[in-house]
Amino acid sequence: MGRTPVLLLIAISLAGCTSKPHIVVGSKNFTEQVLLGEIISQQIERRLGIEVDRKLDLGGTLLAHEALKSGGIDLYPEYTGTALTAVLKQPIVKDSKTAFDKVAEGYRAWGIEWLPPFGFNNSFAMVVGTEVARAQGLKNLSDAARRSAAWHLGVGYEFTQRPDGLHGLIQTYSLRLDGDPVTMDLGLLYTALQSKKIDMAAASATDGMLAHPEFTVLEDDLHYFPPYECAIAIRHGSLERFPNLRETLTELSGRISDKEMRRMNELVDVGHKSVAEVARDFLSNWK
Questions:
Q1: What's the pLDDT score for residue 1?
Q2: Of 112, 80, 114, whose CA–CA distance to 96 is shortest?
Q3: What strand order describes the sheet that includes 51-55?
Q4: Is the same domain home to 102 and 181?
Q5: Does the predicted TM-score (pTM) go above 0.85?
Q6: Does residue 171 share a domain with residue 95?
Q7: Which residue in 26, 50, 103, 200 has the fewest CB atoms around it within 10 Å?
Q8: Is residue 4 pLDDT above 50, yes or no?
Q9: Are 186 and 203 within 8 A, CB to CB?
Q10: What is the helix (H) or strand (E) element at residue 48, kind and residue range?
């Protein structure tokens, strides 16, 4: 870990030092995570009346995880497939319940609990332009592997290093690439597809941009990617400090479908609504 992430973790920890009871909610650094962090924060505020210190948009998986372990944050939303492979360094598991159970067991050693999932599965989505898919008869990744031309792939910064990422994908499908993948912020992948800087992107299944007909997700027909059910990872000590916190957060379990998560992401990324407004509207619709 470089100097900047270390300094950021110290700053997070110091920011949490206050005598007034409060909860520190974190998130990683993309729209969906920030949205979930805000939904969690507003749920706590409205249900418990406890002050929430938002540490949203922290960074990548390992930085958020270290902040949770160190006590810099009390909780943040995480994905089972990511936790299993990138954090616990365990083999890919295809069954969602098995993956969740293994993650929950592994995190107990750090005094961290996993609450029941929100209800959506944000798997990786290999995305191409719809015009390309139609012209070349592409429906799944096996079709993409049979294409005569190699793919110019765009990915997020973690995808090339993850055990559930690039290497296994190429191995599973014998996918041919035109040079090294282009790494970029996840939010730039669709712009890169539109401008033809890349012709395939390793995106996420709940991205708001996937509501647009100009993009097509190629089916993972060999079922390479593991389940990525999203749930709240929370310090056990935080649940003990606030007796009603578990019940309050568990109210969010099973409430967000793939379609709903994609809709909320689109409202922020495409509709330019504020994260706070989208979170507030979501909570008001069922409470």
A1: 38
A2: 80
A3: 51-55, 22-26, 75-79, 230-235, 112-114
A4: no
A5: no
A6: no
A7: 50
A8: no
A9: yes
A10: helix 31-48
> Residue 147: is its pLDDT beyond 90?
yes
Question: Following DSSP, what letter does each residue of 214-234 receive, concatenated?
Answer: TEEEEB-TT--SPP-BEEEEE
Judge if 202 and 72 occupy the same domain: no
Q: What percent of the chain has pLDDT over 90?
A: 83
CATH code for the domain in which residue 188 is found: 3.40.190.120
List the structure tokens of 6: 């270390």
Q: Which tokens hold the place of 180? A: 């090294």
CA proximity to 187, closest of 163, 159, 207, 168 = 207
The answer to whether residue 114 sits within a structural domain is yes
Does 112 lie in the same domain as 17?
yes
> Which residues neighbour 132 within 8 Å (Cβ) at sequence distance 6 or greater?
138, 199, 216
Report yes or no on 234 lying in a domain: yes
In this structure, are 55 and 77 located in the same domain? Answer: yes
Strand bridging mode 215-218 / 124-129: antiparallel
H helix intervals, 49-148: 61-70, 80-82, 96-108, 130-136, 141-145
Is residue 3's pLDDT more than 50?
A: no
Q: Which of 174, 177, 178, 180 has the alpha carbon at shortest distance from 142? A: 174
Beta bridge mates, 153: 200
Residue range 71-100: mean pLDDT, rounded: 94
Percentage with pLDDT > 70 across the chain: 93
Same domain (yes/no): 211, 234? no
Domain count, the chain: 2
